[in-house]
Amino acid sequence: MAEIIDGKALSAALKEDIAVEAKKFEDTYGRKVGLAVVKVGNNPASEVYVRNKIIACEKVGVRSFSHNLPEDENEADLLALIDALNADPEVDGILVQLPLPAHINEKKVLARIRPEKDADGFHVMNAGGLMLGLPCTKPCTPAGIIELIKSTGAKIAGKNAVVIGRSNIVGKPCAMLLLAENATVTICHSRTADLKSHTRNADILVAAVGIKEFVTGDMIKPGAIVIDVGMNRADGKLYGDVNFPEAEKVAGYITPVPGGVGPMTVTMLLKNTVEAAFRCKESKEN
Ligand code: NAP
Predict the structure, then answer these.
(1) Mind listing the domains of the chain with CATH numbers?
(2) Would the pLDDT of 216 be above 70?
(3) 261 CB under 6 A from ligand 1?
(4) Does the CB atom of residue 208 touch ligand 1 within 6 A?
(5) Catalytic center residues
(6) Is 71:101 a contact under the CB 8 Å cutoff?
(7) Residues 33, 274: contact at Cβ < 8 Å?
(8) Residue 267 φ/ψ, nearest 5 degrees
(9) Does ligand 1 have an atom closer than 6 angstroms to the CB of 167?
């Protein structure tokens, strides 16, 4: 039976370190680290995510600034708010909860955030930095995935890593981070031929598909590390992209849903924000 990778426990341990850093910032600079959280509309999933992020901020001593805008908010006003947050010295990180309503150009909004304050790591400058191996803010979910894999004690270098999914927020950046850790990386997607032949070869398998229990036991290499990113709601429950009962019989390590990748995503957001706060102050002092 696979060993469970406990994302909640790992996240709690990391939050203790983040709280220490946040306190150090406050003691040094006389104010708390600040994260602005912008939500447009009333998407029920976004409401939950935003609430969790704000609670998490409080727990580590990061001040949150909530901006809840109506569904019909116009793009120009949203961009003006981003400009104001970019200029606000109390705000170290900015998070715009996605998805945005259809009438707002998401790319334009994300591009307006100052890269230094881009707590989610979605700005094109940070995405480019990740691609080129330059210092940058890493997207939260992929960064959390790397921490989860490392927590097993297994070496990533030289391993075959297969990522199912090529989204800009999970699949692609996760593949880049695994590459940076010297894994041999394969990215699979909806047009991949004979998916199983790839996944069966994976020492590390990351499932970011968005289809309930998509990865079955026969797709997994015995002993593999399986990271389930999926969050699929059905009949009032949360399901991953991996068929957990089948997978845990084959894998060496596996993340549960809930309690695996999810808590780490929020924790990495806090880490990004505190790091951004220090970076900004230190660059001004030098
Ligand atoms: P997405 O943008 O919908 O991307 C899904 C990817 O899966 C696409 O690249 C798609 O390929 C691929 N795919 C779809 N059907 C496939 C198939 N039959 N075979 C192989 N690949 C297939 O989703 P996402 O934003 O990356 O999110 C993925 C999952 O992670 C979702 O369940 C989401 O809710 C969850 N998520 C969780 C967290 C967290 O914190 N736990 C954070 C973000 C996302 P194509 O590109 O060819 O269409």
Answers:
(1) 30-115 (3.40.50.10860), 140-262 (3.40.50.720)
(2) yes
(3) yes
(4) yes
(5) 53, 97, 120
(6) yes
(7) yes
(8) -65, -40
(9) yes
pTM score of the predicted model: 0.96
Mention every residue, 6+ apart, whose C-beta is less than 8 A from residue 61: 19, 22, 23, 26, 32, 33
Ligand 1 probe mutation, 46, 145, 167, most atoms within 8 A of CB: 167
Mean pLDDT value across the chain = 97
Rounded to 5 degrees, what angle do the CA atoms 23, 26, 28 make?
110
Q: Which residues pair with 242 in a beta bridge?
A: 215
Q: Which atom of ligand 1 is nearest to the CA of 265?
A: 40
Q: Return the residue whose CA atom lies nearest to atom 34 of ligand 1.
A: 231
**Strand (E) or helix (H) holding 274:** helix 261-285
Is the distance from the beta carbon of residue 192 to the nearest atom of ligand 1 less than 6 Å? yes
User: Band of the pLDDT at 228, cuts 50, 70, 90?
Assistant: very high
Give the number of the atom of ligand 1 that is nearest the alpha carbon of residue 191: 47
**pLDDT score recorded for residue 286:** 61
d(CA 75, CA 151): 42
In this predicted model, what pLDDT tens digit does every residue of 137-159 receive, in sequence order? 999 999 999 999 999 999 999 99
Q: Return d(Cα 82, Cα 9) in angstroms, integer.
A: 34
